[in-house]
Each structure stands twice: as C-alpha cells, then as structure tokens.
TrEMBL record:
<dbReference type="Pfam" id="PF02026">
    <property type="entry name" value="RyR"/>
</dbReference>
<dbReference type="GO" id="GO:0006941">
    <property type="term" value="P:striated muscle contraction"/>
</dbReference>
<dbReference type="GO" id="GO:0014808">
    <property type="term" value="P:release of sequestered calcium ion into cytosol by sarcoplasmic reticulum"/>
</dbReference>
<feature type="domain" description="RIH">
    <location>
        <begin position="3"/>
        <end position="108"/>
    </location>
</feature>
<dbReference type="GO" id="GO:0005790">
    <property type="term" value="C:smooth endoplasmic reticulum"/>
</dbReference>
<dbReference type="InterPro" id="IPR003032">
    <property type="entry name" value="Ryanodine_rcpt"/>
</dbReference>
<dbReference type="GO" id="GO:0033017">
    <property type="term" value="C:sarcoplasmic reticulum membrane"/>
</dbReference>
<dbReference type="GO" id="GO:0042383">
    <property type="term" value="C:sarcolemma"/>
</dbReference>
<dbReference type="GO" id="GO:0034704">
    <property type="term" value="C:calcium channel complex"/>
</dbReference>
<protein>
    <submittedName>
        <fullName>Ryanodine receptor 3-like</fullName>
    </submittedName>
</protein>
<dbReference type="InterPro" id="IPR015925">
    <property type="entry name" value="Ryanodine_IP3_receptor"/>
</dbReference>
<dbReference type="InterPro" id="IPR000699">
    <property type="entry name" value="RIH_dom"/>
</dbReference>
<feature type="domain" description="Ryanodine receptor Ryr">
    <location>
        <begin position="473"/>
        <end position="510"/>
    </location>
</feature>
<dbReference type="GO" id="GO:0005219">
    <property type="term" value="F:ryanodine-sensitive calcium-release channel activity"/>
</dbReference>
<dbReference type="GO" id="GO:0030018">
    <property type="term" value="C:Z disc"/>
</dbReference>
<dbReference type="Pfam" id="PF01365">
    <property type="entry name" value="RYDR_ITPR"/>
</dbReference>
C-alpha cells in the first residue's frame, strides 16, 4: 500500500519515481495517457479517506493526503529533471490537474476552499492535538498491530506535506523566465493559471510561520527536540520559496525587504542560533541548513541587485549580513551549503554602498586576523570589497553617489591589513591560505591612501612615553651594544642622531 511508511521506497510507484529521477530521456518518453493514469489516482485521493488508516483508528479527514503526497512526488520527477523544467511534461501535468480540481486538495479545490495559508494553519493545529493527529489508541499502533514506532503517521504533518509537495510540483511546472520574457502565449497562460491558485499573501504567510526549535534543559545537555515527522518544519517552507520565485518572481525591492523582515531573516537567525556544540547536529539544525542552503540563500543571491540603494534600511541589511556571516562558520554545513552562503554574501555586498559595510568590518577586524578554518569566506569578501571600492577609501573625492570614507573606516582598513599581515607571518606555510590572504592584503593596501596617518597615533605614543616618579620625561633608549651596522649605514645613523639632538637642543632654547 502506498500509504504504508514501511513500504516507502519499495512500491511500484517509488521504483518508477527512482527510475525517472534525473533521466530526461525516460521522462520525455512518458506520454499524456501515462501521466493521466497517475493524475487519476491522485484525484481519487482528494475524494476519499485511506481505508488502511481508518481501520487503524486514524481520524477520518474525508480525503487521503498521505497517498496523494506520494503521487505528487512522482509527478515532480516527471516535470523537473537535472535542475531544469521538462516543458512538454509540465504543460501536460498542469492541464491534467486543472481538469481534476480534486487533485489540489480541499483547500485549493475552487469554490469553498479556504486557501493554502488557512489549510497549513489548520494542519498545524491538528499536529498540536493528539486526538486529531493520531489514532484513537496510539498505544495500539506500537503494540497491538506489531508495527514499529516509525510506522506512526501524523495526520497534521501529512496534510502539510501534501500541500508542500503540491506547491513544489506546481512551482516546477512554471514556465522558464526566458519564455515569459519572449511573450510566449502558452507560457503566459500557464503562469496565470498557477498564480490564480495561490496568492502571494498565502506564500508570505506560510514563509513567516515561526519554526519549532530544540530546547535545552537547565543542565545544558538533555534537550527537547521537535519531531520533524510530526510538526511544521523547514521542508514545508522550501516549496513556498520555490513557487514564489518561479511563478511570481521577485522584482520589487520593497517586497523583497518585506520578505526579508518577516520571514527570511528570522529563519536565518534561528538557524544561526542552532550552531552550538549540542544543537548543531540535531535533526532540526540539519533541516534548517538544507532549507537555507538550497532555497533561501540562492533566492537572495539571484535577487542581490535589489539590495542596492537600501541605505534607509541599514539596520535590516546589517542584521542580514551579520547573520549570514555567522552562518558561514557553522559546524555542520556541507560544502554545497557553505558555497551557497559565500555566493550569497558576496553577491549582496557587491551591490551595497561601502559605508553599509562598516558594521561588518568592525566584526571582521577581530575574526579575520585569526585565520581560522572558516577564514576563506571573509577573506574573499574583503578582497572583493576593497578591489571594487578602492576609490571610496583612497581618493579624496571618493565615489560618486557614495561619498568618501570616514576616519574610522580607514582605521578599520588599516587594522585589517596589519592584523592579517601579522597573523600570516606566524602561520605555517599553506599555499591556498597564503595565496588567498596575499590577494586580500594587496586589495586592502591598494585601497589605503598612501598618506594616511592614524590621528590617534600621536596621542597613543604620548601616553606610552616613559616618565620618572616625578612625571618628568625619562628616556630609555634601546640597547644597541650587540648590534653592528655596515659602515655606510652606521654613518647615516650617526648623522641622523646628531641632527635629532641638534633639533631637540634648538627647540629647548627657543622654548
């Protein structure tokens, strides 16, 4: 039975899905009658409950989201292979689904449907109520039927997974942007159909729903972690982001910043908060990494140009930069996820005014000179920043529309240079690290004005000057007894010493 968790991966439907996955040739070989059979089974799931689950005492929903989600997953592989939409199949699937509104579940069936956001919120309420979420006697599922704990199905989660799989499928059926831009009639028609099914307000609402986070007990070791198979989780948000981008597109800066404030940034901050020794390997943390690395950050990267001229939202932008940078040091990231973080951070910073980087530079002054295992991303960030904006720091006129650098920005730049330089001089040679750090040093050095002098340097030296018990200047010259200079250099040193003494005497007399 497709609804059986124990059979997941071994049913004919699962075998077929595995076969067509990333196989364009096989996907294209499927014809409309083949796909219509699958859609027919999917439509049946929208009209009647699963008999097997009813027999086990599960609540009667009046439809079957568990098996429906499996058919939707198969169709997803049919319409999207190797990262690209299979246009022929996508058009056929949309046409077949529209003919059978019951495929969309009660929420999107048409008149009388409460909409996607309301359906997800209702499913969350079901997942919080064991009487609605589990069979009448949950103990019977574990013991009476002889099945393992993993066979337990949570009805609230099943509903959320169904709608997430549906939105994922519809998002992948969306026409590619080049067809939309070319004004292709069929592409415009399909996009209009998809937009009519789910409004942006529902997508924004779902993306903005807070996720359940693990909770540490007072001893700091034992924790309560949300069950990803029972509650609203990051995997339910990713399809909403996909649909939002592929069906609607994000071309308006105010809309992007709204999404960032109410949805994206809270999730980024929640993920960053899980980067601790205890929490970084939890199921929640890994799910957050997948969602952020595969859906959220790539979207921000592609929308990076919209971050230009955001000076009036400096606090929001700075919080975003600081959080993404914090994520780059995560313990449990895969290489692909770390690459996504780097690409996003570099893309956003490239479109910001140099002055908006000041808060992040203050943090990098302390982090980067350590040249830790996570220094590659900030080194590349600094290299790109100073290569792109060297005129802002170096020229008295600065950059048009960006102004000129402040004294603090120049001081931060100088501290970065010497911090990296001093740390590098004490490191054991590593070709990759030294190449990356050298490029960064060259970029920073090229941005500093050649006549830049730290105005606080004189005051610092004055404070550090040695004095005796009465507060009078007490010179303590360096001991040079064991130092020998070449004859010509010693002559220059002596002449300079005589000149310095004569100047000091002259100043004393004139005073």
């Amino acid at each position: 039975c497709v609804a059986s968790e124990a059979m997941r991966g071994s049913t004919p439907l699962d075998v077929a899905a595995s076969s067509v996955m990333d196989n364009n040739g096989l996907a294209l070989a499927l014809e409309e009658p083949d796909l219509e059979k699958v859609v027919t089974y999917l439509a049946a799931c929208g009209l009647q409950s699963c008999a097997m689950l009813l027999a086990k005492g599960y609540p009667d929903l009046g439809w079957n989201p568990i098996e429906g989600e499996r058919f939707l997953s198969f169709l997803r592989f049919v319409v999207f292979c190797n990262g690209e939409s299979v246009e022929e199949n996508a058009n056929v699937v949309v046409k077949l689904l529209i003919r059978r509104p019951e495929c969309f579940g009660p929420a999107l069936r048409g008149e009388g449907g409460q909409g996607l956001l309301a359906a997800m919120q209702e499913a969350i309420k079901i997942s919080d109520n064991p009487a609605l979420d589990l069979p009448e006697s949950a103990a019977g599922v574990y013991n009476g039927s002889g099945e393992e704990e993993g066979e337990v199905i949570h009805m609230g989660n099943a509903i959320m997974s169904f709608y997430s799989a549906l939105i994922d499928l519809l998002g992948r059926c969306a026409p590619e942007m080049h067809l939309i831009n070319a004004g292709k009639g069929e592409a415009l028609r399909i996009r209009a159909i998809l937009q009519s099914l789910v409004p942006t307000t529902d997508l924004v609402g779902i993306i903005s729903i807070p996720l359940n986070m693990p909770v540490l007990n007072k001893d700091g070791t034992v924790m309560t972690e949300p069950d990803m198979s029972a509650c609203f989780c990051p995997d339910h948000k990713a399809p909403m982001v996909l649909f939002l981008e592929r069906v609607y597109g994000i071309e308006d800066q105010s809309f992007l910043l709204q999404m960032l404030e109410v949805g994206f940034l809270p999730d980024l901050q929640a993920s960053a908060s899980l980067d601790t020794e205890v929490l970084s390997t939890t199921e929640t943390a890994l799910a957050m990494n997948r969602y952020i690395g595969s859906a959220l950050l790539p979207l921000l990267t592609r929308c990076a140009a919209l971050f230009s001229s955001t000076e009036h939202y400096a606090q929001l932008i700075d919080s975003t930069l600081q959080t993404i940078y914090r994520l780059s040091k995560g313990r449990s990231l895969t290489k692909a996820q770390r690459d996504a973080i780097e690409e996003c951070l570099l893309a956003i910073c490239m479109h910001l005014r140099p002055s908006m980087m000041q808060q992040l530079l203050r943090r990098l002054v302390f982090d980067v000179p350590m040249l830790s295992e996570y220094c590659q991303i900030p080194l590349r960030l600094l290299t790109n920043h100073y290569e792109q904006n060297w005129k802002y720091y170096c020229l008295p006129s600065g950059i048009i529309n960006c102004g000129v650098s402040s004294e603090e920005e120049l001081l931060l730049t100088k501290k970065l240079f010497w911090g990296i330089f001093d740390s590098l001089s004490q490191k054991k040679y590593d070709a990759d690290l030294f190449k990356m750090a050298t490029l960064c040093l060259c970029a920073i050095a090229g941005a500093l004005p050649p006549d830049f002098v730290d105005s606080s340097l004189g005051a610092t030296l004055e404070k550090q000057a040695p004095v005796d018990a009465k507060g009078n200047f007490d010179p303590k010259p360096i001991n040079t007894a064991n130092i020998s200079l070449p004859e010509k250099l010693e002559y220059i040193a002596n002449k300079y010493a005589e000149h310095s003494h004569d100047k000091w005497s002259s100043d004393k007399v004139s005073a």
